[in-house]
Structures are given as C-alpha cells and as structure tokens.
Amino acid sequence: MLETVFLTLKLAFVTTIILMFIGTPVAWWLARSKSNWKEIVGTLVALPLVLPPTVLGFYLLVILSPTSPIGAFLTTVFGKSLPFTFEGLVVGSVIYSLPFVVQPVRNAFEAIGDRPLEVAATLRASPLDRFFSVAIPLARPGLLTGAVLAFAHTMGEFGVILMIGGNIPGETKVLSVAIYDYVETLQWGKAHILAAGMLVFSFVVILTMTIIERRMRKRLQ
Amino acid sequence: MTDIHIDLQGVLGDFSIEAAFAAPTSGVTAIFGPSGCGKTSILRAVAGLNSSLTGLIQIGEEIWQDAASYTPPHKRAVGYVFQEASLFPHLSVIKNIGYGMKRSKKSHLSPNLDELTQLLGISDLLDRMPNNLSGGEKQRVAIARALLSSPEILLMDEPMAALGQDNKNEILPYLEKLHKHLKIPIFYVTHDMQEVERLADHLILMENGKVRAYGKPADLISDPSLPFQKRSGAAAILDGVIRGYDPQYDLTTIEVAGTPLIVPGNIDAIETTKRLRIKASDVGLSLTQTSEGMSYLNNPLATIISIETINPAQEMVKLQLGKAEENTYLLAAITRKSAEQMGLQPGQTVSTLIKSISFMGH
Fold first, then answer.
1. How much is the ipTM here?
2. Residue A72: which CATH number?
C-alpha cells in the first residue's frame, strides 16, 4: 500500500514541476498575445476540462503507441514504449492537468495589467527581465493556485491512467486505481484507509492553499 | 547641444495626431491642453510605450525613432512618472528605487541617492512597503525611482492629477526644488494652468491632437489669438529679480524688464529670480501719467499691443512692459465702455495700475 502512495506522490510531484515550466509560458502568451490564434490555443488547452478522461486516454494510447509517428519518436527518446510505463503516466497527467495550471496563472497575469510592465520597461528592464522581475512575483498567488491544483488533480486522476497505464504495481498503480482494485476484490478495509486518506488530504490542501493565497494577495495590494 | 525634436503622426480614437515641435534640452516643457487631446499619447510615444505613432523622436543627439528605426522602451534613457505612482507592490521603497538604478548606466547626470531622497523628503520611508505610504509619498518615491535611473529626459504625465489638493500642495514645492536641481529636460503633461504657471519654462499648447502653439509661457499666455485669455482668471506671467528691501515699510523692490515693481513683505534675498503672476482683473489703465493721490504703488508705463473683446462687457488689453525685445507682457481686463471712452488704440502708451502681484514658487 505504501508503494502505491509513494508512486502517486511521485507522479503528482513530477507532473506539477513539468506543468509549471510548460503552463507558465503558455499562460503568459495567452494573457499578453493579441494573436487571433489565442482563443484556439486557449480552447485546446481547456479541452481536458470537459473531455471524458477515457476519450483523452484513448487518444493518448493511440498517439503514444510506437506505431504512430509521435509515439515512434518518443520511443527512441525514452528508449522504451511509453504506454504502461511511469513516463507514459507523466505525459498523460501533464496534458490532463494543463488547464488547471494555465487558467489560474493566465488570470493572474491578466490581472497585473500593462502598467507595472510599462514602468519596468521605462526603468530599462528588457522583456525577459520584466517577466521574471515583475510578472512572476506579482502572479505568485496564481502560480501557487496552479501548482496546488495540478498536484491535487494528478493525485486523483483515474480514467486517463487506467487507459494508458493499466495497473502495474510500482510502475503505474496509483491510489485511485488501487482503491478501485480493493473494492473490486472486496477488500473494503484497505479501500477505506486509502479513500479516507485522500479525503483528509484534499481538505487540508484546499484549506492551506486558501489561507496562503489570501496572505499573499494582502501583501501585494 | 542639439534641441529636442518631436514630429509624430498617427490616429488616436476619433482624431488624428499631428504633433511637431522643438523644445530646449533643459528646463520644464509643459505640454498643456484639455483632457483627451493627445498629450499623454505623445509622452508615451517619447518613452517608446506607444508604437502606433510614427515619425521622429530626437533627444539631443540621440534618435529614438525615425522612419527607419525604433528603439525599444528599455533602451531609451527616460524617467517616466505616471499619473498613478505605480510602485511595484512586491518591493520595498528602496528596492523600487533600486530597480531602475541597477539596470541603468550611470552618467555624470545621475543624481546621488542620499541627496535626492533627502530633497524629496523620503529618506525615512526607504524600508516601507508601498501599501503603507500616502498618495503623495508614493508619487515622490516614483519620482525618485525615475530620476535615479539616470534618464536623459524626465517625462511626467499629470503626476499630480490623481492626488487630492492637500497632496498636490505637498508635492509642488518638491517639484520646484527639483526643477532648480536637475540638469536634464523635463516634459510635463498637465491640464492644470496653475501647474503651468508655476513650473513651465517652455509651453506646448495642444488641441485635438495638434500642436496649436509652442514657445515661452509668458508669450503664449498673453497671446490674444490663443485661448488662455478667454479664461476667467487670465493672468500674465513675468520673471523678475529682487533688487532691494525697504525695512521701514516692509516692502521689496523687484525688477521686471527694467521696471521696478514694489511688493509687500520681505520676499527673498537680493538678486534672487522670482516668477510673478499678475491677474488681468487686477490691472487697470489710466491716460494720466501720475501716481500722486493714488494708493497704487505700481503704475509703470506700458504700450498697448492688442485689444480683444472677451465678452460683450469686457476687453482684454495686452501691453508691452519695458522694451519691445524683452517680450514682457501685462494683461488688463477692462470694460468695453472704458476702452471706448478712453479711446484706447494699439501702439498707445498708458499708465497701468497694478493692484496686486503674487509669486510662483520659483
């Protein structure tokens, strides 16, 4: 059981780190760009919010399989076929949780407005410098929200994982899958422990995040 | 040194901007006009924040924008003070100031941190966070931040418009001190005539996106073809030098265009330059050149340059004080009836009766 908990935390942690690196620039572009493509890209990013996880998982399975061009490329990069591996789960989780990072971070960037960035420009800060010295610090509450949501959402992921990861102990068997397993095999006691653990975890995460975020916002007013 | 040349075109909302003017590379150039006339767009274009205006921006020997080139804002050595102080909320006062300092090239024009924070009265606030400052304090920090980034020009966009009257009165003296202290030119956008009168060395009058006139404030304010005189409370602006003080009557003599004027009180040290404001409604005219039997101490001779009707009852008379080449003018608001009965004509020399003179901070 501990192995499952550890694997789930590891997946959530790796996914969150990768998402912050991918989601933040995407959110910045969506917040600042005047391009006509902006809303198309925004919609693509938001798709996992409404798509049934099984649909997403099905397409990922097709795309990641070594017979597709992208899958073939990834297979050479990772040295193995991605479906039914931990790496495959990470790729799936990143796509599945992307909107949970992009949306709050984009809102935070938009809330900054033009003025602080203009001020920084007149104080000789280059565009990249402005991003790191002004935009990121001022968007901190949004970044925190994004990271916590990505982490928590990945912890509870089920459908996508079942489709592309299956149920391999130590490799792809995460909490939600394990709970399903225990219930299927009528091990209610173990299911109770994991389910209650998730319940407490979720409650603590949301409460902590709300408190920290409120403090940050107060400081930035 | 070469002057500042601005020649910008573009579209702003409903009207087009066509602004061409030259300004000296020292002193305060006020860009004056009603709200929405394009003043701020021009200022933003100079800073590189408004790329929709095309044309020429030349500051001294540097060209920041012309048909072939466009310098991005962070490579233009400007100091920009926005209407709202716009301090970075995540940085303390000293770190706000340091933000520009550490990113700019030091030059011989760079003011000294201690001196400037002293001058602006913010030395005790350096460790505070912006949300613990009053509106006036924030704006003073913003001014220090802009100046310590070693700009070649300071751009101020109605820096006092968002402040209450108390905060305005608090900041104006600092601006006047700065004005004396700084060696760089200042562009000062405003729609407040009082600020123009107190601060401007050079005036650009804008209307509907176009430059209506530019030149010395005293010339423009007294020009009958411009709208300044139509304002109630029209006044002439004159520069004078203090020449003496009479302790017996507590009166100061100040010389304006070779003409001594007497004002109550001990104004300032001898040889100090002062800017005077004489309201048109405080000036009367007389055909008899005598001061006997009159309570008016100041009745210098002046030559009528023009007479304009400002309303059915009143005329605005523009007069030349002293020699013609001095460009020193007085305004007198008199009734049309008096003007007709006295038979006033341009070119005529008359006695002026000046009831009161006030001082601008300079």
1. 0.84
2. 1.10.3720.10
